[in-house]
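Most newcomers find our protein records easier to grasp once they have seen one. Read left to right, the backbone structure tokens trace the chain's path through space. Once this layout is familiar, the rest of the handout is easier to follow. The record below serves as our worked example for the rest of this section:


***
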Amino acid sequence: MAHSPRLALDVKLKIMANKFTVGLVQMRCTTNAEENLSRAIDKIREASARGAQIISLHELFRSEYFCRKEDADLFNLAEPVPGPATEALAKVAKEKKVALVVSLFERRAAGIYHNTCAVLDADGSFLGKYRKMHIPDDPLYYEKFYFTPGDLGFPNFETKYGKIGVQICWDQWYPEGSRVTALSGAQVIFYPTSIGWHPHEKAEFGAAQLDAWKTIQRAHAIANGVYVAVVNRVGFEGKPANGDPGLEFWGSSFVADPFGQITAEASNDKEEILVVECDPAKSEDTRRNWPFLRDRRIDAYGPILNRWLGE
């Protein structure tokens, strides 16, 4: 007997409302790519054992954050995506039945490299990738030397457990990317990150920088009524004795709910794994009571496509 349209709708809503659990792996990295991959896999297994279903690693986890300097030899760190790293991670994804968000230095072709996140589903299948759209160029963050801006837009990925979006580090400061990602239906937006204190700035600006970083991403959760899951690396990387002042990565990975409340947060100096339950019904409730998406004036936003509106 055929199901009624109403019954089909009820089933669909029930499926959409299934809760899922995210895991964030906050870890240190070395210059040894295979060691970093092995340790990440161990931590993925640990997160899975604690109930995580969608697990994210931080930005460029296979190496130290190499963009502290401009060095053409460092292009040798890049790899195809998909490639050997995603194949190794797909095995653990399938073994543990977890979806993975993994940030890699992608070699697309000679002279074309991207800062890329691969998304793997719980059966090990490759769902696709997101290429970092906004590329910074600041002291100790010389990313424009290495990365071509992304050209895949702001995709969503349908994992076994939930629909997710991805932004990478510097993307997290731009509300436009998070908005477009949310408008495609993402239930949670992951932000793999490598951010820390410049040694000459921490004493004067460090607390304010960290607060701004948390605030902007909590704001994305509030404005869009979605969960945000922010995973940062931790530890000091650099060799001051050799003229490399280094960066102290501030960790502080966190998950915020659809109204921007932080539900879990890691320290800024230790390796940790956060495991947090996400309930899509909370987005539904938040958006009903704070209907920012309903009241958007999409007829009036054309000027935002201009670089500047002054003279």
DSSP finds six helices and 15 strands in the chain. Helices lie at 5-16, 33-49, 84-96, 175-183, 202-224, 280-289. The first strand starts at residue 20 and ends at 26. The chain has a mean pLDDT of 95.
